């Protein structure tokens, strides 16, 4: 898609939002500063008949639905933050999660047969009309020949082309923001958009989703916080995914929270802890945990579906995340500040003590309070001010993590308005700290480093020299590796003797 086409699509999106009074809706005029209120009223001169119908959330949902997958994903994210935007607004957007218009069953049957390369009757005894339709795909209930009930996910016809178009528009919007809005540059809009586009691209191949579901299912099985369906590999193709039927009620249905015997506090805790256990313990997490992808049953069972977006964290990121959370749990703001500087999240020329003071200003007013006593809107505004003051740039490798953390916290708040995210996180974070930062863990880390050094030594020793001229440098290098490996091995032994002896 060319730059000019992307430009006109971007202009068209803005025009549709203005016509529907969904860009700066009239309902928020009372809280706008005078200059913004004047701009909003000027834009509203171009609004159409649609602008006079429904609530702002209804108008925005209607527009986003027409703008394509990326816009719908944004609406899904906004719908999880009723505490910021208000319950009516979030509820109006919630239909974007799984209640979009479906495509016909006949088209789904054709797509399934083409993707699997076999007649439907050879795998399914029955395939019913879709029960959920989202931005990229829809889900059908079906029964295998052995009688098991399954869910069959099928990509929308032509969705790949829509994603390509959306990607071009997103790149253009990011480039314009980077060029025209200096304050946005530290948020690295281009890098942010590339993370979003990469996630969308991976969602276009359901074989990747099947693999992600299987891998995360193994991870979830190690804790009791949430579970994943089982992949039916005979029913997996590029455009088709078959999973065992998820038990329970979809959390996107408001009636689900009134199930008999439901423990809302335990349910909210399980969702928070399930996400953190995935991210901290395994460096692998479900990165799209909105209500449309969660099924619940009494007393606090959670089944997660839709594994199109999987987040991954390296060992360094996991360590920094755990220590930052641990620091907040213990109100150790100096430690949190040092970790931010060590990780490079805050430029080194800033004052670590001043940053610790800023963190205290954030943490103390919310510590020990439940969600009903904390304004997330004010808190996010304060965090944005602090990140600007200390020149904290967006970290592309953490985009999915940060987005998922905000989504999970919003979902947990909706389930349990008194949800205490710190209390929920405490056992998972302390378990990680105990396991990874204990003396035994340090011995393990020393041993791992020793083994890496010794393997490098062996590889160097086994590599024949190309000419006589390079023999001595290689020998010197080998001796250096040997010295390093020996030193680490000795340190490991001494540390082990101190711990175990």
Explained architecture:
57% of the residues lie in helices and 8% in strands. It is an alpha+beta fold. The chain has four domains: 96 residues, no CATH class; 43 residues; 188 residues, no CATH class; 62 residues. The strands form three sheets. Strands 1, 2, 3, 4 and 5 form a five-stranded antiparallel β-sheet that branches. The radius of gyration is 26 Å and the shape is globular. The termini are far apart.
Please state the structural category.
alpha+beta
Q: How would you characterize the largest beta sheet?
A: 5 strands, antiparallel
Task: Tell me the overall shape.
Answer: globular
**Low-pLDDT segments:** 467-501
Helical element count?
20
Tell me the number of strands: 10
Oligomer: single chain
Distance between the termini: 67 Å
The percent range for helix content is 55-70%
How much of the sequence lies in strands comes to 5-15%
List keywords for this structure.
4 domains, alpha+beta, disordered C terminus, globular, 57% helix, 501 residues
């Amino acid at each position: 898609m060319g730059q000019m086409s992307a430009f006109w699509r971007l202009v068209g999106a803005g025009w549709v939002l203005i016509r529907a009074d969904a860009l700066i809706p009239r309902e928020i005029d009372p809280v706008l500063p005078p200059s913004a209120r004047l701009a909003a009223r000027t834009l509203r001169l171009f609004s159409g008949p649609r602008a006079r119908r429904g609530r702002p959330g209804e108008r925005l949902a209607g527009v986003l639905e027409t703008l394509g997958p990326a816009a719908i994903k944004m609406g899904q994210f906004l719908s999880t933050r009723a505490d910021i935007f208000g319950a009516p607004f979030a509820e109006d957007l919630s239909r974007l999660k799984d209640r979009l218009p479906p495509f016909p069953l006949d088209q789904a049957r054709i797509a399934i047969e083409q993707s699997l390369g076999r007649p439907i009757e050879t795998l399914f005894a029955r395939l019913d009309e879709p029960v959920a339709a989202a931005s990229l795909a829809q889900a059908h209930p079906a029964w295998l020949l052995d009688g098991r009930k399954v869910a069959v996910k099928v990509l929308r016809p032509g969705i790949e082309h829509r994603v390509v178009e959306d990607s071009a528009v997103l790149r253009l919007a990011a480039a314009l923001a980077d060029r025209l809005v200096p304050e946005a540059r530290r948020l690295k809009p281009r890098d942010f958009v590339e993370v979003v586009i990469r996630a969308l691209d991976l969602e276009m191949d359901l074989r990747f989703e099947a693999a992600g579901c299987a891998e995360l299912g193994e991870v979830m099985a190690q804790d009791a916080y949430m579970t994943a369906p089982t992949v039916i590999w005979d029913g997996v193709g590029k455009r088709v995914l078959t999973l065992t039927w998820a038990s329970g009620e979809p959390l996107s249905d408001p009636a689900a929270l009134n199930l008999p015997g439901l423990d809302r506090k335990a349910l909210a805790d399980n969702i928070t802890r399930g996400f953190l256990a995935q991210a901290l313990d395994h460096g692998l997490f479900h990165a799209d945990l909105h209500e449309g992808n969660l099924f619940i049953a009494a007393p606090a069972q959670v089944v997660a579906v839709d594994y199109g977006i999987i987040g991954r964290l390296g060992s360094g990121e996991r360590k920094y995340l755990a220590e930052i959370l641990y620091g907040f749990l213990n109100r150790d703001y100096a430690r949190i500040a040092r970790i931010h500087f060590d990780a490079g999240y805050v430029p080194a020329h800033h004052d670590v003590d001043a940053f610790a003071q800023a963190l205290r200003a954030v943490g103390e007013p919310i510590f020990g309070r439940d969600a009903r006593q904390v304004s997330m809107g004010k808190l996010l505004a304060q965090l944005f001010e602090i990140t600007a003051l200390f020149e904290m740039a967006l970290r592309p490798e953490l985009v999915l993590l940060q987005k998922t953390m905000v989504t999970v916290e919003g979902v947990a708040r909706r389930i349990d308005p008194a949800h205490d995210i710190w209390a929920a996180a405490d056992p998972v974070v302390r378990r990680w700290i105990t396991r990874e930062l204990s003396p035994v863990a340090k011995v393990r880390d020393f041993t791992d480093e020793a083994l890496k050094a010794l393997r490098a030594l062996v590889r160097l020793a086994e590599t024949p020299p190309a000419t006589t001229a390079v023999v001595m440098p290689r020998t010197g290098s080998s001796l250096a590796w040997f010295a390093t490996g020996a030193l680490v091995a000795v340190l490991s032994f001494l540390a082990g003797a101190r711990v175990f002896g």
